[in-house]
Amino acid sequence: MSKMIFMTQADIPRQYYNLAADLPFSLDPPLHPGTGQPITPADLAAIFPMALIEQEMSSQREIPIPEEILEIYALYRPTPLIRASELEKLLGTPARIYFKYEGASPVGSHKPNTAIAQAYYNKKEGTKRLVTETGAGQWGSSLAFACQKFGMECKVFMVRVSFDQKPYRKAMMMVYGATVLASPSPTTNAGRQILAQDPHSPGSLGIAISEAVEEAAGRDDTKYALGSVLNHVLLHQTIIGQETKRQLEMAGEKADVVIGCHGGGSNFGGLAFPFVRDKINGAKIDIVAVEPLSCPTLTRGKLEYDFGDTIGMTPLIRMYTLGHQFMPPGIHAGGLRYHGASPLVSKLLEHGLIRAEALPQNDIFKGAVMFAQAEGIIPAPESAHAVELAIREAVKAKEEGKAKVIVFNLSGHGLLDMQAYQDFCDGKLEQEPEITLDRSVAKAS
Amino acid sequence: MSKMIFMTQADIPRQYYNLAADLPFSLDPPLHPGTGQPITPADLAAIFPMALIEQEMSSQREIPIPEEILEIYALYRPTPLIRASELEKLLGTPARIYFKYEGASPVGSHKPNTAIAQAYYNKKEGTKRLVTETGAGQWGSSLAFACQKFGMECKVFMVRVSFDQKPYRKAMMMVYGATVLASPSPTTNAGRQILAQDPHSPGSLGIAISEAVEEAAGRDDTKYALGSVLNHVLLHQTIIGQETKRQLEMAGEKADVVIGCHGGGSNFGGLAFPFVRDKINGAKIDIVAVEPLSCPTLTRGKLEYDFGDTIGMTPLIRMYTLGHQFMPPGIHAGGLRYHGASPLVSKLLEHGLIRAEALPQNDIFKGAVMFAQAEGIIPAPESAHAVELAIREAVKAKEEGKAKVIVFNLSGHGLLDMQAYQDFCDGKLEQEPEITLDRSVAKAS
Question: Is residue A9 situated within a structural domain?
Fold first, then answer.
């Protein structure tokens, strides 16, 4: 049997899968931060193009992917599904482990799947400039590339701690033609407010979102693009799970366990949602979201309405949250440093269709190094959460003597995160960063 | 038509192609540095296993690839051949441009093709430890990974200038379990000799080779592995050209121009040799090796016997050389900073079967940024030489109105070379580094 399961480019899915159409329960509407009433499309029109707002609220099961998007997907899709046979040997497990390798994209992660779509729909409605936030830089470099492809300007607020830890990501965004600022920055009211409280603030995704939304709302030619959390973002990512299901079929396999790391929910949802559909229809699948122990949104957060950003400019979203002012420690998995969660993922967790696990930083690097030595690919620190949980599930399968099929999303490679590996090799990650959970969550006034 | 031309894993070539079998002229034997006589297998046995020495001297056309090697190749092979259709659009050229993407390997370059083979043959003959040199680190990380797969120790002498410029490569080698030293180092006679002359020596591949060979020759459990230049290294790389030819056939194309960057000759030879065979048999193909203007071995070197290393420990090889004491400037394409060239490639150039071009550093980054903005992938500085020449050939095809098929080897991505791109974006590469050509070439005494 082949180790890598390729599909031809003719097999790239031609529609996004909208899980909302299949849920056996209704979703809670986002609320306007001023009125506390459900937001309307008009409320969002200042920062998003109408096509994306429609997708955000759509209940149509399949949304066709325009030809112009498919053409750019063809730069790197379909990504391979790879049997982690070398890792299996190392673990001596009867489990069969497969990973979907989204790191095969030019920027090294799954993020272009939605960046390309968002740039396309914005371009079509006349947007000249997109502004966004980024954590580790996977999202920022993806949007920078997508804007370049559609001839739009791109500005990225990059979380300060990652801006300093990952200078190569910044260079990458510059190569694609974007402007990059460290966040909090002195260029926005939101940034100045945070800097006044703490001039050495390491930043967070929540703060960077506040800055980007503020700039987009204030300029007619500019819209905002978000890399995760929202329904339309996860919708675009379902191309991952759709491909994975077909590739498993090609290999004659059925998934028993499906794993993705979780920050805002986009790589997890992208892989998991097509499997959640099967689960709703009766399939027995264990679907697991993995997050950092030091930013435990799903495992220790509260399910309630909260802001998506730190300052409180976004609509209120019903989601698992650590509180919008929670400041996660500066762990290397910058893409998972988010106080909230996708409302769709939150709803699945609430209803027991998925479960969540939290892992310590040192353990996920142990797993990542084992994986790299076996399979060659060095995982992104974010993806390393999925790797380590897959290893634990494979060890459990060995103890139980069960030949389970474990599938996880290797959402990115770690070649631009090597300082993290250097720190791990130097023994600097042994102490888990401490957190204080602040439970004050804003209510709609 | 598909943009990416995949083959199935069943189609991975099962033999290496040995160009020596098809050459219409004889090769010049390497000479013993002490006696000036052609070297014998016994002379090489201190640093290489017998299987590789046999391959070095073989005239057998096809050498079967052992199953154990194919199994590890399956981690990333076959690599895709990709139509650079977005670049074509940008250039408005009638040429059809294809690139073989060797950066798809886990370490990000073509180097594992020979690293895996060398580790395998060494392991089979009882070697416990491999020692090597590396420039930009592509070779060192490949050998580190290969040694990890076969349970051997690995030690890498990394050229000082790259050791400082590319700390992420060092971290990568550590993840794969290797030991990494900056070269020149105080741990060998060769290193101490160079440091006595210049305590701040930036190092060179020639010096690092001296250090590695010295250590291998002095320890019974240790052999030496070279990442380029020698016949057996290029032999292993021919898997690239064999796949490329099949993929072009699948696309219904015939190459008019074949391009590879040239340092020691391994990615160039790997792509080119199967096409050289066709050329010997009458096909009309323009085959071009591209090198840096500041290390112009093929375009300005002399064809004569010279040492492969700086100190003068290796056999004398008849090749194009800038003199074994030539110190190339610290350009970002660390993998191309070598005074010599593959004797096979040298012989092809001598007989007009290939030609060579030299390009300035700033131009190759201009080409690389244009390529990245079009195709997404950020090229390694080495591979950027091939990219820029492909662009020039495509522009020429436009001027001549010819729908040529241009094929080049994108031998690696540049994600671990982003400092180079930062320097380019900051305008720091506009001045071409100056060189002084020293023509004193050692003769066999």
Answer: no
What are the chain A neighbours of B376 within 8 Å (beta carbons)?
75-76, 105-107, 112, 145
Report A:143-202 residues touching B (Cβ under 8 A): 145, 148-149, 167-172, 174-177
Query: Is the peptide bond prior to A78 cis by the omega test (within 30 degrees of 0)?
Result: yes
* DSSP one-letter string for A262-275: -SSSHHHHHHHHHH
Closest partner residue to A3 (CB to CB) among B75, B167, B421 is B75
Same domain, B242 and B330: yes
The residue type at A51 = A
pTM for the model: 0.95
Answer yes or no: do B227 and B254 share one domain: no
Encode pLDDT of B255-275 as tens digits. Answer: 999 999 999 999 999 999 999
Q: DSSP string covering B357-419, please?
A: EEE-HHHHHHHHHHHHHHHSPPBPHHHHHHHHHHHHHHHHHHHHT---EEEEEE-BB-TT-HH
Do B252 and B165 lie in one domain? The reply is no
Distance between CA atoms of A339 and A442, rounded to whole angstroms?
13
Query: How far off is chain A from B388, nearest CA to CA, in Å?
Result: 16
Residue with tokens 């949007």: A143
Is residue A147 included in any domain, yes or no?
yes
Contacts of B303 (CB under 8 A, 6+ apart): B318, B319, B320, B321, B346, B350
Residue B121's domain comprises 50-65+111-231
Q: Cβ of A425 and B107 within 8 Å?
A: no
Interface test with B, best of A378, A421, A426 (most B CBs within 10 A): A378
CB contact under 8 A, A418 and B378: no
Q: Is residue B178 part of a domain?
A: yes
Residue found by looking up tokens 């299901």 in the block: A245
A375 and B9 in contact by Cβ < 8 A?
no
Indicate if A122 and A150 belong to the same structural domain: yes
Examine the domain organization and report whether A220 and A344 are in the same domain: no
Q: Which of A160-169, B216-225, B267-276 has the lowest mean pLDDT?
A: A160-169
Tokens in use for A149? 């492809």
% of chain B beyond a pLDDT of 70: 98
Q: Where does a domain end: A231, A260, A279?
A: A231
Verify that B327 and B188 share a domain, yes or no.
no
ipTM of the complex: 0.95
Using alpha carbons, list the distances in angstroms from residue A324 to A214, A287, A433, B293, B343.
16, 27, 19, 55, 64
Maximum separation of any 2 CA atoms in chain A, in Å = 61
Structure tokens at A3: 């180790």
Integer Cα distance of B56 and B39 in angstroms: 12
A428 Cβ neighbours under 8 A, 6+ residues apart: none
- Same domain for B288 and B212: no
Asked whether A284 and A275 are in contact (CB, 8 A), the reply is no
Q: Does A425 touch chain B (CB under 8 A)?
A: yes
Last residue in a domain, options A231, A249, A283: A231
* Contact state of B172 with A375 under an 8 Å Cβ cutoff: no
Q: What is the CATH number of the domain that holds B353?
A: 3.40.50.1100
B58 & B185 share domain: yes
Size of interface A-B (CB pairs under 8 A): 122
A188 contacts: CB under 8 Å, gap ≥ 6:
A210, A211, A214, A215
Cβ pair A415:B168 closer than 8 A:
yes
pLDDT, tens only, A227-272: 999 999 999 999 999 999 999 999 999 999 999 999 999 999 999 9
Measured at the CA of B247, the angle between CA B243 and CA B251, to 5 degrees, comes to 170
Structural domain includes residue B435: no
What's the domain count of chain B? 2
β-sheet bridge partners, residue A90: none
